[in-house]
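User: quick one, fold this
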Amino acid sequence: MNNTSDIIIGTAGHIDHGKTTLVRALTGVDCDRLDEEKQRGITIVLGFAPLDLPSGRRVGVIDVPGHERFVRTMVSGAGGVDVGLLVVAADEGVMPQTREHLDILTLLEVPELLVALNRIDAVDEELAELAELDVRDLLEGSPWEDALVLPVSGLTGEGVPELRAALDEAADRVPARSLSDVFRMPVDRAFSIRGFGTVVTGTTRDGELSSGSTVEVLPGRERVKVRGIQVHGSAADAVGSGQRVALNLQGVSSDSVPVGAWLATPNALACSDQVDVQVTLLASAPRPLPNNSRARLLCGTAEVLATVRLMADDGGPAPEALEPGETSFAQLALVEPLSAVAGDRFVLRSESPLITLGGGTIIDPEPPLLKRRSRPAAAKLHRALVDAEADDASRIRALLQRHTGDALDLPALQRRLPMGTRSIRDVADAIPEAAALRTEPRSWTWGGETARWVESSTSFVGRHHEEHPLLDGPLLSELRQALVPVPESRLFEALLPLLSADAGLDRRGPRIALAGHEAAPDEAGARALDALVRRLAEGGVHPPPLSEAMAGLELPPDALAWLVDTGELLRVTEDFLVARAPFAELVAKIAAHIEAHGPMGPVDFKELSGLTRRFAMPFLEFLDRQQVTVRKGNGRTLHDRASEWLSPGVG
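Assistant:
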């Protein structure tokens, strides 16, 4: 038997079929709170009530609106439901929203379903039998073909005790929720109460939360403190999964926690403007869903416009359209970020008119951008992620292959795996193809890509030596951009020790070279380089223009880069290079001035250097970058490392 507080029962059904009246008969609570709801006689927002069942278990009941205009509200209430209560009026039978709501419960994979054939007091026995046959026809082909259909009257109370007992039995059949260290809850209401501040309500999906804890609001990742918790209107110190709760949040306005947002353990959930999914189009869908078409994604309590980019299950080209009744992998490109977890269910509706088209499962809530040529490979990897028999190792292996070029740390893997996945670190370490990187925090990447990167790096550096013999090698940034796929910066830094050990590459400052490579000019080149340095040095910190200094010299390729790398020249700006000796002399003058007069201002520097303002300001900024000076107010003092330029022999 499940815990007495982790079951949610949710109503469903057509407008004006008596859902709210039946909930009142079951619980004694009128879920229509708004004046507009009472005046119009219809439910507009979600209603909530506690229900005490015969076994002594107390469960939560969510009453949803039945009007076609409020399907989003219905979905946001049904998303956390364990037992669906489909209400059908015996005097009207199955109606359009009866069918749509049943489709939505199917798409959301609600575990249990009962049908309440309501208003039995308004029909004779023959009409009641016809209404039940109508319901049986509706249920045929659904996951609940054998669901109980119970005649009741929310008005007179007839059949309500039997319905309450049936709900108790259904709640007992609901599978136990998987344990998770991550708390998360979608927000379905947010408002302010004078003297208390912001209050949000929702159905907790995973984990536990204690009063005083800090949670993250997604999207946006603003962190807020939970000042108080209520469960079924009573104060509580903590709350677990599968409960209807109200949270009093500190230091945030209700506008910052809108319907559709999530509250979660900080840094535990993905939040992305694209999600990879497996989507099924309803067999009753009115038309195919074309590739790259727009639709409305309903997930949690959020509704986001999405472009549906289909992938072929067999690894071939993307289908032109998804036909009614068919299933496909897809990436949904979203107009705004969505927070989700692998395994979350969603509903897809047309942009206009508003019709439920289908739905499915979130596979990767934080995927890389899907490119046309990568769709077949992505679909192949997704099969491992949706395979019910797949273990954690195969899922992690598929994620690493999907995210080549990325370093996935423990939180990143957790965000992409179903809730409750344990021992990820141990599983990842045991996968032969998973390369554990000494990053901070520790990360994993796809090892097969690492081997190709090592081979590509050797080839690229070797070609660079042939084309640029005067340089130590390519810049590290150049090598990183030459690798396919381009590794992220943190991953590239972790790769450098592998390049040294496995490819014989040496890191030389900002460059990288084959071990043993010596960058040096020949005799003629050396004479030309010496001549260039002398010409620039003769001008002190007022060197002649580069074109003039280089005139008539047969300089080897990359001459300036080599002189800068060796320290013979210092590059103040792209075309303003100064020889080392006059630069060191200027540093000595600056040090003497600061020691005698205190911080050096721009005017002081112009007098010391003789430079015009056009050159003085870039030179001052260069002195800061070289850690000769450091800004202090409107002036500059000596940096701690300035002494390196003042040592005997420098220059």
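User: anything notable?
Assistant: Confidence is low (pLDDT under 50) at residues 34-44.
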